[in-house]
Every structure is written in structure tokens, then in C-alpha cells.
Amino acid sequence: MTLSLVEAAGANFRTDEESDKLNTEFMNRLGMRKRYLPARLAIARSLAVIAPPSAPPDEADPGKSIKGDTLFGTGTTLSVWLALIFERAGEADMDVKKLISLVGAHWRRGLQLLDKEWEQAERDVARFVKRIVDVADLPTSGKGTALAGTGTNASTYSTGRLTIPIGEVAEDVSTKEKITWEMNGPGGSPHSAIMGGVGSGKTRTAVAMLKSIHEKADVPFIAFDFKGDLGTDASGKGYHLDRVFGARILEPPREPIPLDVLSMQSPDDIDIAEAASRFRESFGRLKGSRLGDKQRTALHEAASSALAVHETCELHHIGDALVDLYEDREWKEDGAIATIKEICRFPLFEPQFDPASFFQQSWIIRLPPNVAEDSRTIVVNLVLDALDQYLNSLTDADQSEDGSRGLRIICMIDEAHQILGTKLPSLSNLIRMSRSKGGAIMMISQSPDDFSGEDDDFLSEMGLVAAFATNAPPKNATRILGKGANLTALQTGQCLAKRRGDQSAKRIKAWE
Ligand SMILES: Nc1ncnc2c1ncn2[C@@H]1O[C@H](COP(=O)(O)OP(=O)(O)OP(=O)(O)O)[C@@H](O)[C@H]1O
Ligand SMILES: [Mg+2]
């Protein structure tokens, strides 16, 4: 290390002139009197992102400088800033020149991020501040549970048996007996599927079960919400799962998902090739992108090179690599290029947390119909891929003395038929493999028929299947719930439920 605190304190830091104007703009917006205040905010904001910032373009004019001891203070304060900057850069060998250009780049990127957030907060200082605070919600401040760090031994969040009532009432219609589901018992499966027609009570039942799980174990939670009713909406309505789990609601692309979604275990050739293949599979599921052989090869090449070059690879890196590759070969733009441009148009992800930190917090990802279909599909695919990768990199979840499996995360997909049509390999992988790793998947769908298109028989892997009434008599009801299962005869609030190991389905009053 060839840098002293004295040197850093005496150095002159600057960003480019354009960014400097934005810096002044932020002084006005936030009523700050000193130039270094928005600069500090911007640098801190940029440091919250894992990916390295890019330098200002060469031709950019430099802005006015701020001296190191003004920008960062002195003594401990200065040391902390430098430590954060070096840690993010992952570079031990830092000299004053490198530091100056790195700070300039963070300053610039930070201002751009803040500017976007300012617009999203509709130029309202209070809302802007709230957003910044949300961004700064680092995993260590997550509610209650200690973070076990990254790596193979992430802690589990539950001990002992989780015995969950099936719905709000959970009563056998004929015997009036209380019906519960032992979600993590030995030999069982923690996954569940809830089906039924519009307004039949699927979400309500799932929410009652999730609340019961949360009362017993502070497990992180991630939900894909296609209808937008799982969290609390702007008018205070909804199922309030954000409040129950302390979950943050995200709505990409308005608000990118702060996950390093293409993160790899290691940057060796095999991992890169595998990650590129996974990306290609996810991408190939998008509507507009029927990939031919030539495109498949090109996409794999582009993804591999982007993953190899960028330590924190983002979607647009792959997009750029693909565009370059087409240009090099003088190929005409085709569906693959159009699709990748489409999903890169707005940032769907921002690499702020690595998967371990991300999946130890709780999130509700809203993907309402006004979000472009390709964006919704790629978000679900890539997040589930990342979850699958993450869980499978862990050692098996702890078991308590009674054989109950500890849980690490609950993943809920409401209105799963929205995506089941796209046959997600990561979803079937998650359902088959994640049980021993502490993953629990809860799928909600309109009809048992929604599951029948899958190659894997999802439903046979479920620990609990519950079906409410549907108008269209489903073809697959008897296959799933047993002979004689009749979903058209169910009254409001009633479902047929079958737990793994049950001889036959029971008729249960889930809610009144
Ligand atoms: N807090 C509440 N009090 C009274 N009724 C409610 C409450 N919450 C939901 N309901 C009603 O319960 C029924 C079931 O709602 P739920 O949201 O679970 O349906 P769903 O099966 O998920 O339907 P959808 O297909 O519309 O998502 C609906 O008729 C709804 O209006
Ligand atoms: Mg619903």
C-alpha cells in the first residue's frame, strides 16, 4: 500500500463538469450549503453498489475540486471512508492517483443514482430521504436475526416443528377437527400448492399460513406478486405481508431489484460456461426470442465473455457483448437483439447485494400486468435461478432433535400460472432439491391444470396441496387429490386438502 492518510487528506478530488452541475443542483434540492455534502451522499450511494463504477468519458471536462480533508474529514472519519472505498474496489495496492479517479467515478455514479431516485420520489425531499434510507438498509440491520454471513453455512431461522393451520379456520368440515400441516417434519416436504378460481380464497389462505409460520420462526420471505395485493398498496389496502415480514416492496423497473443476479460461485471457466447456459435458458423462454442454433451459440458466447470480463456482470453487459458480436460478424439485428435490448431498456437489477445477503432479507417483488411481459419473465427466471444457485451452494439445513428441518427462506409465487406456462427449470429444480437446504416454495394458481404442462410432476413433490372451487372442472383434480375429488361441489371458504402421506383429501373450512 503506497498511500498515507496525509496524502489522501491533501489530495484534490473532482468529478466531471456535468456531474459537478448535478452536484450543485442537489445542493439546491436538499438545501445544502456545502459542495462536499451532496458529494459525500453520492459517493456513499455509489459504494452501496457492488459493481465497480465506470470512469467519466475521456473527453469530459473536469469539475471543481474538493480537498481530501474537506470531502472526507480527517483521522478516523477519513480512514473509514478510505477503508470503504478500498474494500469495494477489492484492491490492496492503491496510490493517490488511483484513489482520485476512483472517487471521481463513485461521485459521478452516485449522483446519477441519486438523480434517478430524486425523480422516482417525485422531487419530494421527504420521499427522497425515505428512499435513500431504504437503500441503506444493510442486511445487518435486518430485523431480529443475526446474519450468518455468506458461504456454505448460512444459518437457519427455525428450530423445531412448524405446525401450521390450513387457513384462517382450518377445520375439518365433517369432524370439526382442527387440521394442521407439519411443514418441516422428517420425510415431509415444505412445499405447498394452493389452487382455486378467482376470489375463491387462495391468497387469503396462503397469507394465514404465512402469518402462522412467521409467528413461529423469523424466516426470510420472498414473494412474486403479479396482482399487487400481497403488500400494502398506496391506499393502505392489501394483505400487508410487507408489514408481517418486514419485507421491502420492489417494483422493477421503476425500482430495480438490488441483487447481483448473475453472481457466480467462482470465476473459473466451468462456472462461467454454466452461468452462460443458465442465462441462455432463461432468455430463451422470452416470447420474442425463439433462438435458432446460430443465436444460441452467439448468446452463449456473449454471456460467457461478459461474465468473464465483468467481476459483477449485469444484464446490459451481456446485451452489449451480444450487440458487439453481431456487429463483428456483420449479422443483421434479429429477434434476439431486439429482446435483449428490450430487457435492458430499464435496469431491472442493480447489483447492490450478493445473493447471500439478498436472500437473508425479505422482499415482495411486484410484477403487475403493466410491466412488460418479457421483463416479468426474465425477472422471475433470473431471481429463481439465483435462489436455486444460492441454496444449492449451502450445506444442508440443520435438523433439530425431533428431525424437523430448519428453514432458510420461504418463496411465494402468487398466481403461479402466470409463469408456469413458461416452464421454469429453476423452479422445478428448487422444488426437487431445496427441501434439504431449507427452502420452502408456496405456489398459488387458478387450476390444477396449470401444473400439468410441466415436465416434472411438481405436485407429487408438494407437502400440501389445497384446492378451492373452480368454475371449469379441472381435468387434473382427481390425479392430484384422489378419486372422487370434486372441486365444483365446494362451498365458499372450503377447500380439499391433501397432505403428503394422507390417504385421501379432506374437506376443510379454510375461512368463513
Ligand atoms: N379482510 C377481509 N375481510 C373480508 N373479506 C375478505 C378479506 N380479505 C379478502 N376477503 C374476501 O375473501 C375472498 C377471497 O379473497 P382472496 O384474495 O384470497 O382470493 P383469491 O383466491 O386469491 O382470488 P384472486 O384470484 O382474485 O387472487 C374474496 O371474496 C375477498 O373479497
Ligand atoms: Mg389472489
Task: Kindly describe this structure.
The protein is of the alpha/beta class. It has 3 domains: 5-136, Arc Repressor Mutant; 163-260 and 354-509, P-loop containing nucleotide triphosphate hydrolases (Rossmann fold), CATH 3.40.50.300; 269-344, no CATH class. The protein has 18 helices and 16 strands. It has a 10-stranded mixed sheet. Strands 1-2 form a two-stranded antiparallel ribbon. Strands 3-5 form a two-stranded antiparallel sheet. β15 (494-499) and β16 form a beta hairpin. α3 packs across α6 (96-120) and α15 runs parallel beside α17. The longest helix is centred in the N-terminal third of the chain and has 25 residues, at 96-120. The radius of gyration is 25 Å and the shape is elongated. The termini are far apart. The model is unreliable at 138-152 (pLDDT under 50). The structure holds adenosine-5'-triphosphate and magnesium ion (MG). Residues 196, 198-204, 227 line the site of adenosine-5'-triphosphate (ATP). Magnesium ion binds at residues 202-203, 227, 414.
